[in-house]
Amino acid sequence: MRNVLRWQAKLDRAALRLGHVGSFCCAFLFFPVARGSSLLPLIGLTSEASIKYHVWLGNLVMLFFTAHGLCYIVFWASTDQIHEMLKWTRTKVANVPGELALLSGLVMWVTALPRVRRQMFELFFYAHHLYALFLVFFALHVGVAFFGSILPGVFLFMVDRYLRFLQSRVRVRLVSARLLACDAVELNFCKSPHLTHSPMSTVFINVPCVSRLQWHPFTVTSSSSLEPDRLSVVVKRAGRWTEKLYETISSLPPSQPGHLDVSVEGPYSQATPASFLQYDSLVMISGGGGITPFISVIRELVHRSGTAAEAATPSLLLIAVFKTSADLAMLDLIVPASGGFSDISRLELRIEAFVTRESVPSAGDVVAIAHKVPTEEVLFKPSPSHAPIAPVLGHNGWLWLAAVVSSSFFIFLLLVGAVQRLYIYPVDGNSNRVYPWAARTLLNLLLLCVGIAVAASAAVLWNKRRRAEEAKQVENVATPASSPATWLDKPRRGDAEVESSPLHYLEQATAVHFGRRLDLRRMLLEIGGTNVGVMASGPPELLEDVATICSSGSASNLHFASISFTW
Fold first, then answer.
1. Transmembrane stretches, by residue range (predicted)?
2. For residue 300, pLDDT beyond 90
């Protein structure tokens, strides 16, 4: 190597420092995507809301690592050392795995761009599995000692990922499905009463007969307080996967119980009920299928309003925007298929529904529209291999998670110590110049995986045995024999039972506006009260409009409660 110029020496030092800064950012990269981590709730973050921090950190990591690699390439080219790009040293920093790690990261970075992710989500999803190669090549590049600087986040992510893998291997019990007139289907699963979730939680669903590889996130519409043994999600027919799922379920005969294998990951909480109770009034604004997160909120507050021990619940205003009158069937979902609704009249609820693409039909047309595709319910027969959705680590999940994390790391340290003393030390001593870095790094990664697999598998199997008796008790749980009528099917009987039914109350609380555009600003500014919470779910433009109105200062009583659905 010839003498380098001053600018070349500075470039060499800059490249090294860029790598260190990128590694520092990488140390925090995996914390936000550990969905079941106990660290996120401690700092007030949910698994969905933390995704934006993962995106920011990912951009920083790739920015610094790309600059790190380019600076070294320029340095080597300017000093006639371009052959260094193909160098894989035995006991020092290896360049080839660093370049492979950078290439893996660049593929993930490009496919994660907003336009690519929205238009080709499957490409983004599968490309992101290159994180495994990225981590392995990064560890081979820097060595096991420096890899320890990012190990805490990687370790917690690996524990979470393996637990999610174990949960996804279980086939869950699907009790029934409601087919709505708006080409949507509500899936009702059996769940363990020990599994509790907050409103607007998210689950990931895999249906092998549709696709063995694809997992799709959906918002939970049920309330674990109101329905302790049920978990429901709504799937809107939009896209190849959802269309095939809808056709599969709709082809099943309603008169005979069907069979469908489904796997579930989650649920992952979005918000706590206490965040809704802090307001005197709550305004929920939805566009299209964006109404589904608010169904769980309404069900939760219905339960709380009927419980004398609970504090006063806020009054609710649901502003729902639909394209066609068939989409009004989404309002049916407010009443759970399992029944058992509390006295909904205790809740001060008002629904303003806007149908933007249709003019006002006659009363007879409304009923006709509602019954073009009648609401059907398909029942599913229980299978001995299907189990209720349950916490992967039991109802004391946080204690078990702490035990898994601590015991798996202890096993890892014990194995590393034994291998170091009995296998590596006789060869290398303490010189770190004989035993190859690559072999040492791969061995440590393998032992880390072994420690996690042993501890997590033992905890899951222990809890699975404890749930066996519970599963036997609920496997033959009764399912409803008929589906509830639609809210548009107005009752014609005058008896008190019909007049006091939840569907009748919802009909009275709902005002449908045909052919009118929503004057959102006027409606929000006309809302009275001193402490009004405002939430929005739907297209990004809708969320931006609501946030702009609430922050404009025109109404000091409006407080925008941001929610995030960015899976």
1. 21-43, 55-75, 96-113, 133-159, 398-423, 443-462
2. no
Same domain flag for 534 and 493: yes
The total of structural domains in the chain comes to 2
Nearest to 508 by CA among 499, 518, 495, 516: 499
The sheet carrying 263-268 orders its strands as 216-219, 202-206, 263-268
Residue 101: pLDDT band with limits 50, 70, 90: very high
The domain that holds 270 is classified in CATH as 3.40.50.80
pLDDT for 561 equals: 74
Which of the pair, 89 or 454, is modelled with greater confidence?
454
Point out the domain boundary residue: 469, 496, 530: 469
Residues 363 and 321 in one domain: yes
Q: Is the dihedral of CA 493, 303, 284, 281 positive or negative?
A: positive
Q: Which one is predicted more confidently, 377 or 503?
A: 377
Whether 444 is covered by a domain: the verdict is yes
Write b or e for each residue in 264-279: b if 16 or more Cβ atoms lie within 10 A of its Cβ, otherwise e: bbbbbbbbebeebbeb
Helix axes 151-168, 437-474, angle to 10 degrees: 40
Averaged over 311-327, what is the pLDDT? 83
Both 290 and 331 in one domain: the answer is yes
302 and 321 co-located in one domain: yes
My answer on whether 286 and 435 are in the same domain is no
What gap in Å lies between CA 526 and CA 518, rounded to an integer? 14
Give the tens place of pLDDT for each residue, 258-273: 788 999 998 887 666 5
CA dihedral 179→329→497→345, nearest 10 degrees, is 130
Q: Are residues 149 and 276 in the same domain?
A: no
Range of the domain at 523: 174-386+483-560
C-alpha 8/C-alpha 11 separation (Å) is 5
What is the pTM (predicted TM-score) of this model? 0.82
Residue 566 is predicted with a pLDDT of: 53
Cβ-Cβ contacts under 8 Å for 567 (sequence gap 6 or more): 48, 51, 202, 204, 217
Same domain, 348 and 262: yes
CA angle 309, 312, 317 (to 5 degrees): 135
Picking from 113-122, 192-201, 297-306, 356-365, which range would have the lowest pLDDT averaged per residue?
Answer: 356-365
Average pLDDT over residues 74-100: 90
- Dig out the tokens for 162 from the structure: 């393996």
Instruction: Name the residue with tokens 């005979």.
Output: 256
CA distance 156 to 38: 10
Torsion angle of alpha carbons 404, 405, 406, 408, nearest 10°?
70
Q: What secondary structure letter does DSSP report for 421?
A: I
Single out the residue of 220, 224, 232, 219 nearest to residue 196, CA to CA.
224
Residue 77 covered by a domain: no
Q: Is residue 58 part of a domain?
A: no
In a domain, 5, yes or no: no
